[in-house]
Amino acid sequence: MKLADLEILDAVANSKSLQEVALRMHKTQPAISQSIKRLEQNLGFSIVDREAYRLKLTEQGRHFYLEATKLLAIRDDLKILANEFAEGNEAKFSICYEPISYQNIYNEAIGDIFKTYKSTEFSITSGPRFEALQQVNSGRAELGIGPWFDLFHATGELETMKVGEIELGIVAKKGLLPSSLQYEALESYPCIAMFESAFAFDSERLAYTLNTNRMKVDDLTSMKSFLLSGLGFALTSLAHCKNDIDNGELERIRIVDRQDSFTANIHVFRKHTRHHGPVARAIWSRFKQLGEKYG
Q1: Which helix (H) or strand (E) holds 52?
Q2: pLDDT for position 82
Q3: Rounded to two decimals, what is the model's pTM?
Q4: Range of the domain at 98
């Protein structure tokens, strides 16, 4: 068994199809299939459930993968340590920063570390709902910044800390809806919502309403653009819409017979490993200072 085989197993466990695995590993699908078969022959049991509609590990494959991640984590630690010995700090540091969490104090923290470590390339990405969690778990980002719920701990071995909060409320173009109405009446209006993520716990059941007249988007910028166009209402970050609410283009909608505002925690999080490079340590320390008031 080779580390390369375990790397493919890791990609299989975090992908929806063999095509996605092939793209991630920069190999052809036949090559990926052969690697999986070779690993199964070496192990003596099937690791991929070939009867499943989506790419899925067998029960034995899942248990084996959980143990294999420990070896892959040690490999990652060794890579970080070797890079630190060779260059003094990470050559590249990747952060997935979800737009719903944007705050100036976080931007300043990232900016200060960026200016301190001039030889490190910073890669900042964003994406749809829970993208930061997805990228950190798959190893595509060293640090995630985004909404956090306790059940996220079940997705991987993560180190996390609270650094802020966001308030969510119902928003629409001014005059599109009554400024206050009952929940049943809200369901008759078009809704703009975010696409669900790939996580099993994330589904349409988490939606505030189950309107049939619904438009789905994958980023907050598109959502606000359609809100300003008067295409519907959305449950979204009130901070993200503050300027438009203040100038009268958008307004907050109140639901008289049901809770209509929610507070979500913002966390920074990373994979739990035994060693982090200088940039990772510095940025974690800076966010730790921001999170001190939350205990």
Answers
A1: none
A2: 78
A3: 0.70
A4: 85-165+265-294
